[in-house]
Automatic annotation (TrEMBL):
Keywords: Lyase, Metal-binding. Gene3D superfamilies: Aldolase class I. Its EC number is 4.1.3.4. Pathway: Metabolic intermediate metabolism; (S)-3-hydroxy-3-methylglutaryl-CoA degradation; acetoacetate from (S)-3-hydroxy-3-methylglutaryl-CoA: step 1/1. GO terms for molecular function: hydroxymethylglutaryl-CoA lyase activity; metal ion binding. This is hydroxymethylglutaryl-CoA lyase. It comes from the Bacteria. It catalyses: (3S)-3-hydroxy-3-methylglutaryl-CoA = acetoacetate + acetyl-CoA.
Length: 297
């Protein structure tokens, strides 16, 4: 098992999509450019979804066209359907993510269709992407609980993850959308899904509603996970998951990984400065690690 962990920075997309006031495009572009200078290998830049559904990311074309593409950094974007795929490709996106959930109720609210319908919608998107040489990640939301239906059976998580895998997704990110998971459950889900999809192709995506995200990530790393989603300054919250707080903060994840001797290639001090800046811009709290690093320095 490799000693390297890949962080997928989702701050500019998941972190911003639910902010209540319209963030200027130049702030979004500056956020991505500052993040790419910290050593982060993957930065999810924006979403090509419907503007009434997610008004905050209605400037996706503008953001994507204006970012500085740093060599060695990947900039995936979220795409819900063929229309989103075409919009993303028109501005040069080379990597996409499709998204569905392990809970029917959440999927209906989020993308206005059933899980089965979402799979039908994604099939042509993934086919086109593969033909175009575009890498596709698949997200499964609500793997540890749903804001509408509560418990989500692990068998459903496996079924949806396998469907995304069979459709041709290169990587599957398992999301605790409302941050209700605890370490033993998180690890059990990974171990169960990993029976049919190699753990090297799985990622974890934790929100920190109950303060469990780092512990969950640690448990999943012990189960072999080496790709972790996180958001600078812990930005985030899902528009369709009331009360869910932000994603786990990237600064906290990097600090923990360094303590575990796992390399992620990120300059923590530089990242803390980005976190401090964007938290100030949005009037949001700093991450714990970010504050500590900046005080120490
Ligand atoms: C999926 C749809 C489009 C279905 O929305 P719909 O209303 O069912 O779709 P539709 O095909 O009937 O289209 C309705 C209108 O939207 C337009 N439209 C349709 N598609 C697009 C597009 N791509 N870009 C721009 N416009 C679009 C379409 O052209 C039409 O416009 P009209 O004819 O009425 O003027 C909508 O519900 C949607 O965009 N939802 C986005 C939801 C979202 O982004 N949620 C947050 C991301 S998921 C998440 O955060 C979880 C995750 C990934 O982080 C992991 C975790 O934490 O668990």
């Amino acid at each position: 098992m490799t000693d390297r962990v890949s962080i997928v920075e989702v701050g500019p997309r998941d972190g911003l999509q639910n902010e209540p006031y319209t963030i200027p495009t130049e702030v979004k572009v500056e956020l991505i450019d500052r993040l790419s200078a910290t050593g982060l290998p993957v930065i999810e830049a924006t979403s090509f979804v419907s503007a009434p559904a997610i008004p905050q990311l209605a400037d996706a074309e503008d953001v994507y066209s204006r970012i500085e593409r740093r060599a060695g950094v990947r900039y995936p974007v979220l795409v819900p359907n063929l229309k989103g795929y075409e919009r993303a490709r028109a501005v040069g996106a080379e990597e996409i993510a499709v998204f569905t959930a392990a809970s029917e109720a959440f999927n209906q609210k989020n993308i206005n269709c059933s899980i089965a319908e979402s799979m039908e919608r994604f099939k042509p998107v993934v086919e086109r992407a593969r033909a175009d040489g575009v890498r596709v990640r698949g997200y499964v939301s609500t793997v540890l609980g749903c804001p509408y239906q509560g418990e989500v059976p692990v068998s459903e998580v496996v079924r949806v993850a396998e469907a995304l895998d069979q459709a041709g997704c290169a990587e599957i990110s398992l999301g605790d959308t409302i941050g209700v998971g605890t370490p033993a459950k998180a690890r059990a889900v990974i171990e169960t899904v990993a029976k049919s999809i190699p753990v090297e192709r799985l990622a974890v995506h934790f929100h920190d509603t109950y303060g469990q995200a780092l512990a969950n990530i640690h448990a999943c790393i012990e189960a072999g996970i080496r790709t972790v989603d996180s958001s600078v300054a812990g930005l985030g919250g899902c528009p369709y998951a009331r009360g869910a707080t932000g994603n786990v903060a990237t600064e906290d994840v990097v600090y923990m990984l360094q303590g575990l001797g796992l390399d992620c290639g990120v300059d923590l001090k530089a990242l803390a400065q980005v976190g401090d800046w964007i938290a100030g811009e949005l009037g949001r709290p700093r991450s714990r690690t970010g504050q500590a690093i900046l005080k120490r320095n």
